[in-house]
Design goal:
56 residues, 1 helix, rod-shaped
């Protein structure tokens, strides 16, 4: 009986750890998506500035 209880505890610990890791990864994904939005805005601004500088 003790082995079964120990196995359940191990599974519960694994679930808690994996849930925490998933939350951290989701936070990182959100941050990276925002960084991509920021990079896209900067690229658009640079492109517009270069377009204005090009001879007509």
């Amino acid at each position: 009986m003790a082995k079964t209880h120990e196995g359940c505890t191990d599974i519960a610990v694994a679930v808690v750890v994996l849930t925490a890791e998933a939350a951290e990864l989701q936070t990182r994904v959100t941050a990276l998506r925002q960084e991509l939005v920021d990079v896209d805005r900067r690229m658009t601004a640079v492109s517009a500035a270069l377009y204005r500088l090009s001879p007509a």
